[in-house]
């Protein structure tokens, strides 16, 4: 047999098919908005991370177009050579102001921000303590570091403290890493307690606020701001691809953090910087967020309304404290069926099952945004009711 036929991969693909988890990528025609055309069909979109509707906001599109006219379409190099435009510097200044931190370092995505930052700040002789439900990019970032790693039970402070108590003295630096908002359940990390433990045991803190930035805190400043913990978290990560609507990731923190990452953040040294057409709308988005609460208010209004209506129907919404609205179904097959039937009836909500979430806790995850109208939300609730009753979920 010819190795280039990749039969060893074909066999694995067949396994995916046999276990019912094989899927094709959905195809979106047009912008990612509250109502979309998906695989040729018009549906209500409850699956995006476009929390504020910024991904196709006219002001952001204008800013992108103007930036292309002035700067072209590519940055042309990595930042450490000649790919660091005045636009990139302005973006980081505006973000630092937004996050109320000394400095911000931007990467090309949230994923490679975690991959690049964690390995740059901890090394052999250090320990990483990570919440067991942290995002995949944190897990990969930890794997790239030569530090020892251990996990604590999700949001469990006794578990975290027992690790600190047992291991703190054996290491030089200890880094506690948590998501700010957990993307599968929509719960918020107990940051005040985490920070207090970090201070008690002289550990560093690292909060990945991909789902909190643009959502929680004053004008969407994030989870650290929500809890009033400015100055007490060492590294705060955000994405520019969710609420901000464009692409990119960043670390907010001290000047020292930024100075070090500009020398040792590998994605900055070895991968070209964000294009002008991404950077300019990011600046526009952050300025817009700082100038008005209109978008964050509408996001929360919509989320509260949608949760209240689904709750009234008797759906199990788990322990969400944010606009992320999981509807827990349980059984994996039934979850995927529910998602499929919702789509047939014009509502797109992705099903999420093991191994992304624990076995038996399959769910559809609804992402309500500021851009949804009450009519669209009402229609979605109606479809949830009809399909939920048909399938005897409610
Ligand atoms: C989405 C997400 C990321 C990745 O961000 P991208 O900008 O899409 O690469 C990282 N961390 C968390 C917690 C996320 O939810």
UniProtKB/TrEMBL annotation:
Pathway of action: Cofactor biosynthesis; biotin biosynthesis
UniProt-listed Pfam families: Aminotran_1_2
Residues bearing PTM N6-(pyridoxal phosphate)lysine: 242
This enzyme's EC code(s): 2.3.1.47
PANTHER family hit by this protein: CLASS II AMINOTRANSFERASE/8-AMINO-7-OXONONANOATE SYNTHASE (PTHR13693), LD36009P (PTHR13693:SF3)
Gene3D superfamilies (alphabetical): Aspartate Aminotransferase, domain 1, Type I PLP-dependent aspartate aminotransferase-like (Major domain)
Keyword hit for Transferase: yes
Cofactor field: pyridoxal 5'-phosphate
UniProt keyword annotations, A-Z: Acyltransferase, Biotin biosynthesis, Pyridoxal phosphate, Transferase
Record's protein name: 8-amino-7-ketopelargonate synthase
A GO BP annotation: biotin biosynthetic process
InterPro entries: Aminotrans_II_pyridoxalP_BS (IPR001917), Aminotransferase_I/II_large (IPR004839), AON_synthase_class-II (IPR050087), AONS_Archaea/Firmicutes (IPR010962), AONS_Archaea/Proteobacteria (IPR004723), PyrdxlP-dep_Trfase (IPR015424), PyrdxlP-dep_Trfase_major (IPR015421), PyrdxlP-dep_Trfase_small (IPR015422)
GO molecular function: 8-amino-7-oxononanoate synthase activity; pyridoxal phosphate binding
Transferase keyword on record: yes
Cellular component terms (Gene Ontology): cytoplasm
Reported function: Catalyzes the decarboxylative condensation of pimeloyl-[acyl-carrier protein] and L-alanine to produce 8-amino-7-oxononanoate (AON), [acyl-carrier protein], and carbon dioxide.
